[in-house]
Each structure stands twice: as structure tokens, then as C-alpha cells.
Design brief:
The complex is a heterodimer of chains A (78) and B (382). With 78 residues, chain A is an alpha+beta fold. Chain A is 29% helix and 26% strand. The chains are: A alpha+beta (78), B alpha/beta (382).
């Protein structure tokens, strides 16, 4: 069963930037409403396959996408 | 009908612009950044894509430095009021639109020191005048890139060097030049660029923006308005993140979608091709008007040194009569008066009467120009 992670951002624009970048690099991602257990910062968060979390973090860092935090999500993925 | 009022707003719009606006409202109609559902995300994508298009169009690498506003006036106010404090010195030109002049006069009363560099009667500005006005205490130089009255181009790249040597920044009002001339902020040294979407960028009215160069520290710019951004909602303080710091309230989704489509339309057609087309129309219009008796044409009379905006007066005729007769008898749509730019009309010698302004656009043809000249010719000879 897939385990998910979620990237939280401060702004919607940063989410959009991250989405474009990660899709371009071939990651399987989905934008979801920010899980309430983490933050109320921005309405949208980016969910990804947790097995890629190191690579996702590096990709976002290298592109200078400003993010708030990366969290492990459970298998429900919300 | 021959529409020669493109300096007020361009018309018609490319069909792609109207389609993009309808499509955004129909298929991406959520509130960007407020909710997490598909329509909200779709709206956010439309807006982000347009930010990217604008950033690359003006030579800025970070799309988050594109701040959406209602129009160029709003963007200019954001920059001027966000940066200038009592005691600061600001330099501008004598060809400015009231979008620049009125906020500056207001700031002047509040203790900002204002210097207005004189332009020549053709609207051109000797950059040495700027060098004389700028001092070590100058915080900002603000200039129109192209006059909305006579089209004269101001050499903003040279002015940027002068401003930067004195430690000042350059704000450019590109209302009349964005989409008509190539603009690369990093190559030209423009620190802040105010644009409007509804003129040569082919977008709808109600959308414009301020583009902030990649190297500018945004902590020196205060927001003009504060409010909901969809981000950092736990805080009652305005966030410092770009672009949210300067963009409170729900964005103009349809306007941004239309603007994005307008920019893509320009990119497909090529800005150089558009420039060449408008230069040919200008040449034809200037030559035709100059050959008529009792007609005085203002400006450089040189399409290389101006955008396609031509002002004229006719001895013995009121400009209001010319405008009305052109519309009613010949179907030629112009704009008469002071064009919200009293300083510019004082500079070119047409204050307070004003001028008749003709501004062709990308959809104007040489045939349109010849018909307009024939109409004016019949009128002045009658």
C-alpha cells in the first residue's frame, strides 16, 4: 500500500511552482486540501509518494521553492 | 468603423483572449488559494501560468515577483506609496501621466521632495537632465517609457544607469509600451515596472501589475492594501511572502486569464513584427497629417523614437468638433482633450486646449490609416 507524504507551503504560488516542477521531473503527485492536523498556512498542499521524499525535498530545494514543512501522512493520504 | 483609440484601450481583442476568459470562469471558477478543491486549484494554475508568462515576457526569472493589480495606476501607486517616505527625494519627468503625477503631488505635500526634469517640446528627455536632478539623496526615479500624448520614447536604460550610480531605483510606467516595444527588465536595468493589461498587451480592462526585478529587496516596499491572502491564516499580520504581501483579496481570475492569452498571442506573433507594423502605420499617419494645411502634428514625427501615438491640432477648429465629426461623419474613433496628462500637454505646448490623439493598434491596417487621413483632409478643407 502506498504511503504518502505531504509538502506544506506558505503561499498558493509556491504550491503551483512546486507542482509544475515535480510533474516535469516525473513525480506522481496530487494537490490536496491542507490536512488540518498540520497547518492552516495555505489551503492547498502537495501530496507525494513517501518513498520519494528525499528526492522531492532535494528537487524543491534546488529550485529554490520556498516550503513550510514536509510531513509523513498515513496510508489514507488525507 | 476605424478604431484609433488604442492608447486608451486596445480594441478589438484577439478572440483567444475572450475564449480564455470564458474558459477560466467556466472551468476554473474557484477562488485560488482559498480552498483545496479542484476548481480552486484550477484557478490557481491559471494565475500562476500567467505569472510565469509575464515574468519571462519582461525578463524576470522569478514569477512570484509579478504582482497583480487592477491597472497601471494601481501598480504605480503601490510602488510610489510603498517606497517613498517624508524626506525622500524622487525624480520624474515633465511628460508624465496623472497616474504618476497625482500620487507624486500628494506625496510631495506629505514631505517627499519632488524634482521634475524638463522634457523638450517633442516629448524627448535629455538624460543629462536626469543626471543633474539625481543626487545621493534620491530614492527613486519614476519615468514613463512612452508618452501617452505623443508616443515619445524615454531612454529608460540610460536613466537606469544614472539612477543606479546615485543609489536610486528606477520605476517605469510601461502603460503605453508593454506589448508595443520589447522590454527586458534585467537588460535595461528597470527595477520596478508598472503595466496595464488592456492596451497593447491585448488583455481586458481591470488587470495590470507591478513587476519587481529579481535583485530588489522587497522589505523596502510596503503594501498598499492588506487583507486576506489565503496564506498564514493563523496570523492577523500581513505576510511577507511574495506575491501575497502585495495581493490581498480575491484575484481577478478572468482578467488574468485574458491577459495570459493576450501575452501568448503577442509571443506567437512576435513583438518585433508588432513593432514594425505599428511603425509603418505611424509613418503613414505622420506623413499624411503633416501634408494637410493648417494641421500641426506634435511629437518627434519619428516612428523610431516613438510608439504609435500621434497628436495633432487644426488651426481654427476646436478639437471637440474634430473628434465628434470624425466619429459621426467618418466613423473614425479618436480621443480629444488632455489625455489625463496636463504636464505633457504643457511640455508640448498644447495646454489647456489639448489635442486630437490617434493611436493605431495591431489590428489597424494601412488602408484604415489612409481612410482616416482622407477623412481629416476633407474636414480641414471644408
Amino acid at each position: 500500500m502506498t504511503q504518502y507524504g505531504v509538502v506544506l507551503f506558505h503561499t498558493t504560488s509556491a504550491v503551483m511552482r512546486a507542482e509544475k516542477l515535480l510533474i516535469k521531473e516525473g513525480y506522481s503527485i496530487k494537490l490536496i486540501p491542507t490536512p488540518r492536523q498540520f497547518s492552516s498556512d495555505c489551503g492547498i498542499a502537495l501530496r507525494f509518494d513517501w518513498s520519494c521524499h528525499e528526492q522531492v525535498k532535494v528537487a524543491l530545494d534546488e529550485a529554490n521553492v520556498e516550503l513550510d514543512a514536509i510531513h509523513f501522512l498515513d496510508t489514507k493520504g488525507v | 468603423m476605424i478604431y484609433l483609440d488604442n492608447a486608451a484601450t486596445s480594441w478589438p481583442k484577439p478572440p483567444e483572449v475572450l475564449i480564455a476568459m470564458t474558459d477560466a470562469l467556466e472551468h476554473a471558477g474557484g477562488n485560488p488559494g482559498r480552498s483545496g478543491h479542484r476548481l480552486s486549484i484550477a484557478a490557481a494554475r491559471v494565475i500562476y501560468d500567467t505569472r510565469e508568462t509575464i515574468a519571462s515576457f519582461f525578463g524576470v526569472s522569478d514569477p512570484l515577483r509579478v504582482i497583480f493589480t487592477g491597472n497601471a495606476t494601481h501598480a504605480i501607486n503601490l510602488a510610489l506609496k510603498g517606497m517613498l517616505k517624508p524626506g525622500d527625494h524622487v525624480v520624474t519627468s515633465s511628460m508624465e501621466h496623472n497616474a504618476v503625477m497625482r500620487p507624486l503631488r500628494n506625496l510631495d505635500r506629505e514631505g517627499v521632495r519632488l524634482s521634475i526634469t524638463p522634457c523638450a517640446t517633442d516629448g524627448s528627455l535629455d538624460v543629462q537632465e536626469v543626471a543633474r536632478a539625481v543626487t545621493s539623496g534620491t530614492r527613486l526615479v519614476v519615468m514613463t517609457h512612452g508618452s501617452n500624448v505623443v508616443g515619445t520614447i524615454i531612454l529608460v536604460a540610460e536613466i537606469a544607469s544614472i539612477a543606479h550610480r546615485a543609489g536610486a531605483l528606477l520605476l517605469v510606467d510601461a502603460a503605453q509600451t508593454a506589448g508595443a516595444l520589447p522590454i527586458n527588465m534585467s537588460e535595461m536595468g528597470i527595477d520596478l515596472l508598472a503595466f496595464t493589461g488592456h492596451k497593447e498587451l491585448q488583455g481586458p480592462p481591470g488587470i495590470g501589475g507591478l513587476v519587481i526585478a529579481d535583485n530588489i529587496d522587497i522589505s523596502q516596499i510596503e503594501p498598499l492594501i492588506r487583507g486576506g491572502t489565503g496564506s498564514r491564516s493563523e496570523s492577523e499580520e500581513q505576510p511577507d511572502d511574495l506575491p501575497d504581501k502585495f495581493e490581498s483579496g480575491t484575484a481577478n481570475l478572468a482578467g488574468i486569464a485574458g491577459l495570459g492569452a493576450g501575452l501568448k498571442w503577442i509571443q506567437e506573433r512576435g513583438i518585433d513584427e508588432i513593432r514594425n507594423h505599428l511603425k509603418k502605420l505611424s509613418r503613414s499617419l505622420i506623413d499624411g497629417l503633416s501634408s494637410l494645411p493648417n494641421v500641426k502634428v506634435y511629437g518627434t514625427l519619428d516612428p523610431e523614437r516613438s510608439v504609435a501615438i500621434i497628436s495633432f491640432t487644426v488651426d481654427g477648429m476646436r478639437i471637440s468638433e474634430i473628434g465628434l465629426r470624425l466619429d459621426e461623419e467618418f466613423g473614425v474613433l479618436s480621443r480629444v482633450g488632455l489625455h489625463c496628462a496636463p504636464a505633457a500637454h504643457k511640455t508640448i505646448g498644447s495646454f489647456p486646449e489639448g489635442t486630437v490623439r490617434l493611436a493605431p493598434g495591431v489590428f489597424t491596417t494601412i488602408d484604415d490609416i489612409q481612410k482616416a487621413i482622407q477623412a481629416i483632409s476633407r474636414m480641414v478643407r471644408s
